[in-house]
Structure formats: C-alpha cells, structure tokens
Amino acid sequence: MSQLDKTIGEIQSLDDDAMRAARARQDQLTKPQGALGRLEALSIQIAGITRDARPRFKQPALITMAGDHGVARQGVSAYPAEVTPQMVFNFLRGGAAINVLARHVGARVVVVDMGVASDLPAHPELVNCKIAKGTRDFSIGPAMTRDEARRAVEAGIAVVTQEIAPSTGAQSGADIIGTGDMGIGNTTPSSAIVAAITRRAVAQVTGRGTGVDDAGLARKIATIERALALNKPNPNDALDVLSDVGGFEIGGLAGVMIGAAARRVPVVIDGFISGAAALIAYGLAPSVQPYLIAAHRSVEIGHRAMLEHLRLEPLLDLDLRLGEGTGAALGISICIAACKILDEMATFGEAGVAEKG
Amino acid sequence: MSQLDKTIGEIQSLDDDAMRAARARQDQLTKPQGALGRLEALSIQIAGITRDARPRFKQPALITMAGDHGVARQGVSAYPAEVTPQMVFNFLRGGAAINVLARHVGARVVVVDMGVASDLPAHPELVNCKIAKGTRDFSIGPAMTRDEARRAVEAGIAVVTQEIAPSTGAQSGADIIGTGDMGIGNTTPSSAIVAAITRRAVAQVTGRGTGVDDAGLARKIATIERALALNKPNPNDALDVLSDVGGFEIGGLAGVMIGAAARRVPVVIDGFISGAAALIAYGLAPSVQPYLIAAHRSVEIGHRAMLEHLRLEPLLDLDLRLGEGTGAALGISICIAACKILDEMATFGEAGVAEKG
User: Fold this and answer.
1) Do A64 and A103 belong to one domain?
2) C-beta neighbour count of B146 within 10 angstroms
3) How far apart are CA A257 and CA A249, in angstroms?
4) Can you give the CATH number for the domain in which A172 is found?
5) Where are the beta strands (DSSP E) in chain B?
6) Which of A211, A231, B120, B146 is the most exposed place for a label (fewest CB within 10 A)?
7) Whole-angstrom distance, CA of residue B180 vs CA of residue A329
8) Rounded to a whole number, what is the distance in Å from the CA of B245 to chain A's nearest CA?
C-alpha cells in the first residue's frame, strides 16, 4: 500500500461527542444562543476535527509551497518566471505579505520548494521537496508523470506530518495549518483543474491571475482548452488530473490537506491555487472535506466553482487575489478567535447572568 | 458654542498627501498592484485618517457603552432588563465575548455606564457617565430630553478624548477605537432610529434582536410605529431623533465617533446599535463619515439600510448579532493587518524582485 493510500485510510470522520459537548457549552455562554453566528459553528467544527471540546492553539503554521510551470512559456502570466525564486527568497527574508500576516497572527511560515525551475541555494528555513525543475508545458503534453504527481502529494503529506510532530525538539508542533502557494503562471493549471473536475467551460473559470490584459486572458483560455483536449484528464481520477494539467505545488498542497486531516489538524485553505489543491485532495479522499476551512473568497472567478464543488463557505471576502497563504493567515486568526470564545467565555451560571425569559 | 459644536468644527477632511504616499508605497510592495484588495484600500483610508503614510498601532481600545431602555417594559426583548448590569459586571470580570476578542486582538476594553437603570458599585475600570437610570418608555413620550441627548453625545466625546490622550500616565493613548454596546431592548431604539432617518417602513428595518418570537417581533414593530407617530422625530435633526426614540449608550457612541474623528483616530463600528449611533453621528456631522470603518454586516435586517445610508461596506460577514463590540474587535485586527502590510512589506527594489512585464 502506498504512503498516500495509507494516509487516506487514516482519515476519520469528525468526532460527534466533542461536537456535542462544544455545542452544549456554546449554548451556556453569556450571549444569546447563536449570536456569534459562524464563529460558533466554526468552533464546533474544530472541536470535531481535533476531538477536543475546547480546542486551544499554540502553534499555527502556514505552509507555502512554490513551483514553476512549463505552460508559463505560453505567455499566460503578467510576470516573468524568475519571480518565483525571487519571491521564495523574499519569503525567507521575511519581506513578503505572507510573512507580515503570519507575524500578525502568530504563525510560522514553512517555505517549500516543490518544483522551482532554478536551483535554490540551501537555506535552513527552506524545505527542499523539489520533484523536478518546473512542470512540462501541458499545452503540448502532460505536466508531469503519474509517478511525479503521486510523489508531489506524498511530499506534502511528509511536510505537514513533520510540522505537526517534528522529529527534533527544536520547535513545537503545528496545531492548525494554513496553505499557501507561489508559482508564476499557476492560476493556469488551477483553472484547468477546476474546469476538468467540475466540467465547466474554461472561460467560466479562468480569470486574469496577477493581471494579464485581454489578449493574455484570451491566450490563457485557449491554452487551457488546448491542454484539456490534448491530455483528456479523467475527472474521476484526481491523480490523472494533477499529472495532466497540475503543478508540483498544487500536488504538494493536496498532500498537506490529506496529511493534516489524517492527524486531525484543521486546514485553512487560501484562495484559488489552494482551492485547486483542495479539489485534488477531495478527489483523492472525499473524507478530507470536513477538515477543510475556506479562508476567503478570491477575486479569481473560478474560485466560486471550486467552493461550490467542495461545499465550503469562505470566512472572508476581502477581494484578495495574492495567494502565498495571505487569506489563510487571516482565516487562522478567525478560527483561533472562535475557539477562544468557546474556551474562555464565562457561562451564565459562572457569571450570574439571567437566561432568556 | 457647545462642546459638541466645537468638536464637530474640529473634524477635518482626510489627508490627501498621506493617502497619495500610501498608495504609491502599496504599488511598490512585492505583490501585483491591488492583489490585496480591500486591505490596500483600508490602509490608504487609515493613512488619510491618521495623516501618516505608514500608520502603526500600539493601543487599540474598545469602548463598550451600556444603557437601559424604558421601552423594554413593552416586552420587546427576549431577556429581562436586569441582564444589562449583570453583563456590565461580566465585562469587568473579563468573562464576556468582548473581553475574549479584545484579548485576542490586543485591545483594552473601556466599559462605560451611560444610563444603566440600577446603581452600579464603583469599580476602577467602570467609567461612570450615567445620564439617567434608563431612558423613558418612548412608546408613551420622548426617550429623553434634548438636553440629555446632547449630554450623552458630549459624554461620549469626553470618554474617547480621554482614552486617546489620557491625562494620567498610567496607560498609553488609544490609537484605534472600536465601538460596542450593551443594553437590553436596544435593538428597538436602533430600529426606530434607522426607520426615522432613512424613512423606511418599520417592518423593513426591525428584526428579532436577541431572539424574540413572532409575537414579540409583531409587538416590537407596533411599539416602534406607535412611538414614531407619537414623537414625530425630525429626520433632519439628529438630536431630535436621539431624544425622541434613542438611548443613552447610542448617544454616547455617536459622541465617541465624533470625538475620534476630531482627533484623527479611526473608528471601527460594530453592528446594529453602533450603526444607529453612526446614523446619529453622521446626522450631526456628515464630516465624520470618512473616519468610520464598518466592521461587519449584522444579521439584524435594518443594518443593511444603515450601511447604505452611511455609504459603508463592512469588512466581515460572519452572521454576528451580539453587539458589545465583538465585530469591531475582529475588524480592528483586519485594520491593523492592513497597516502592517503597508508598513512592513519589502518593495520590489528592496527585495530584488522583477516587476510586471
């Protein structure tokens, strides 16, 4: 049995007892029942995920995975491909948006090279899981082999498992995970994945990414249509979709989601690229769904189709379209707030407050 | 000239230079221009408010004002009136939702008695601005005199001015303010205010508050309709509306908004009751509008009409309907995140990242 199949087999359903206990406690806290809306529901979901009626978080981690895309040669992005490694260095130096927001919410950032096209120098905070130096151009053939696709997902499982229960004592284990991505051109595979899996027209799920003009958008749509016609991904076989039109960071993030679910750790998924990864994870293991929390609704048009397919309602809607895990960072803060409400508020009895008449 | 008129006269427009500088810096940060959506716009607004191209916050404060309502005797709330002082004690002991969320976002909570119906014992952290022991039942006459209405607003100005520049050295000055409320029955005056000022039908802007049943909702609507017919508040005279159908905590919160704007401090307004206060503040001083940031969209149906009238787009939509400042606390965290992005991110030049091709 492969590591992937073994991990999928370890995913259990949410814990009903913890959810019942959390619901009962929410209803005893000094507020009208349900008055904190989605924060209450979120805390109960997380109780079920963690099997703990009063979950507390000590160490959030944002896992940001980077990869390059052969299809970027087709002129589908507004930025040159060398920006991928440049931004990886920016992450490692702490100057990117994800670093700022991770500090704001008290999370650490884990930067992973899943398949950047250039050689990156060793760095103590860079996790090297490079499957290959970028995917192949999927407008002329599959992006990667099926074996590479599986290895990308399994690398994601290994990374998140190591973050949750580090083998060295140097750092504490992550207890809530956010996902993020970096990869010039990676809205193109993400649109291809959502088109393939949800069987929608490419034009319906393809947006401007970092900001291509009208001609760039038309080229992007035509490129994806050509790729789907050529590679014929099987929507019922997520590894086939990933290998035909995916990306290494997308596969890695799918693995992060599966690995976190297997360890009963909540996963806050970022925007469009993380959404594509979630489609792959959900295709491989539908049991991952209740472990996923959608941080925000991306500006990217195809994100709505993803969230609908995944039956997820995002927490935030702030017109974000950056990726990196920026939305996930803010979403993690909302999750922690929801759990603090559940854990720290006084009950009617403790506070001597009269209940509803 | 009254203190109120003097303070209104001190409100200036947002600072164009600071906003231009903030916009220019946002466009040089290592992300596609505009990719952080509303966070970027928010940081620029706050730059204009604070007259600082890189605003930094050290001390957020949530000002939660409490008051009782004579109209509660008409059976318009699901909770008995004694809950107002009980919740004030809960705030002072740190067990309420607002305390939990204030700790989560690093804010202090300032609890103000604007008009609780009972005598509250002195407490070092309770600010006593009691105008009267609850308003009068506005279904049989005005809620308060015009002089009381003015004094409530001026008390709010005094409280926020003291928080921003404390006269003792014991605590640092607040540099971003959130508003909150506590008062059994206070969705009723809030619905009356929004109906009076926006000239909408009472049934269109009246919801279930903390959870009245169908009969309670019908009673609430009929009570407000009777009050408006009897007291005839003048929609063009916000002090008249406040005195006819308002509340002491609502007047106080209007003063907080006006006082903060006069000191160039951003005000993050909570949900429905803070929205009613914002309608009063805006009626008294339209120049307050650009200083207001709407934290969230409340479940209370009349909140949409308020936000539309105030031309504010809320940051969050989490089905909250608690009040206390809970939504404002989360909104403050988003504002701080937005300003940290502006201040802490590396520019393309600093990070050696290629710009858009």
Assistant:
1) yes
2) 14
3) 12
4) 3.40.50.10210
5) 60-67, 108-115, 126-128, 176-182, 267-269, 292-294
6) B146
7) 26
8) 24
CB pair distance less than 8 Å for A345 and B210: no
DSSP string, B25-41: HHTTBSS-TTTTHHHHH
> What CATH number did the domain enclosing A20 receive?
1.10.1610.10
Whole-angstrom Cα distance, residue B304 to residue A162?
A: 47
User: Å from B322 to nearest chain A CA?
Assistant: 5
Q: Do A23 and A77 share a domain, yes or no?
A: no
Same domain, A98 and A217: yes
Copy the structure tokens of residue B245: 């159908």
Residue A62: is its pLDDT beyond 90? yes
pLDDT tens digits for B213-268?
999 999 999 999 999 999 999 999 999 999 999 999 999 999 999 999 999 999 99
- Enter the tokens of residue A272: 């469009």
What is the per-residue burial (b if ≥16 Cβ within 10 Å, else e) of B72-95?
bebebbbbebebbbbbbbbbbebb
**Distance in angstroms (rounded) separating the CA atoms of residues B23 and B104:** 29
Q: From the candidates A324, A344, A350, A355, which is the catalytic residue?
A: A324
Residue B324 annotated among the catalytic residues of the structure:
yes
Is B142:B243 a contact under the CB 8 Å cutoff?
Answer: yes
- A158 and A200 both lie in a single domain: yes
- Active-site residue, from B324, B344, B350, B355: B324
| Tokens of residue B114, six digits | 């604007």
Which residues of chain B lie closer than 8 angstroms to A326, CB-CB? 36
Residue A236 located in a structural domain? yes
* Chain B residues within an 8 Å CB radius of A89: 351-352
Q: Which of B36, B95, B345 sits opposite A346 (nearest CB)?
A: B95
Name the residue type at position A57.
F
Asked whether the predicted pLDDT for residue A148 surpasses 90, the reply is yes
Contact A176, A160 (CB under 8 A): no
What is the residue range of B20's domain?
3-54+342-351
Q: Do B79 and A346 touch (CB under 8 A)?
A: no
Which has the closest alpha carbon to A118: A80, A163, A62?
Answer: A80
- Which residue in the set A36, A316, A346 is minimally distant from B90, CB to CB? A346
| Cβ-Cβ contacts under 8 Å, B178 against chain A | none
Restricting to B residues 183-242, those with a Cβ less than 8 Å away from any Cβ of A are 210-211
Number of domains in chain B: 2
H helical segments located in A59-182: 83-93, 97-105, 146-164
Q: Are residues A10 and A90 in the same domain?
A: no
**Residue A357 domain-assigned?**
no
Alpha helices, H only, chain A: 3-10, 16-26, 37-50, 83-93, 97-105, 146-164, 187-198, 214-231, 238-245, 248-262, 272-284, 302-310, 326-344, 348-351
Burial class of A317 by CB neighbour count within 10 A (0 to 12, 13 to 18, 19+): middle
Which are the contacts of B235, defined by CB distance < 8 A and separation ≥ 6?
B196, B197, B199, B241, B283
- Same domain, residue pair A50 and A64: no
Binary contact (A354, B86; C-beta < 8 A): yes
- The 8-class DSSP code of residue B109 comes to E
Q: Which residues make beta-bridge pairs with A235?
A: none
Chain B, nearest residue to A85 by Cα: B353
Reported ipTM: the value is 0.97
B42 plus B136 within the same structural domain: no
Q: Is residue B357 part of a domain?
A: no
The answer as to whether A356 is a domain residue is no
Residue B169 pLDDT grade (very low, low, confident, very high; cuts 50, 70, 90): low
Residues A85 and A230 grouped into a single domain: yes
Token pair in block for residue B76:
């318009």
Write the CA distances from B132 to B114, B147, B191, B214, B228, integer angstroms: 8, 12, 22, 32, 22
Residue A181: exposure state from Cβ atoms within 10 A (0-12, 13-18, ≥19) = buried
Task: Give φ, ψ of A109 to 5 degrees.
Answer: -110, 130
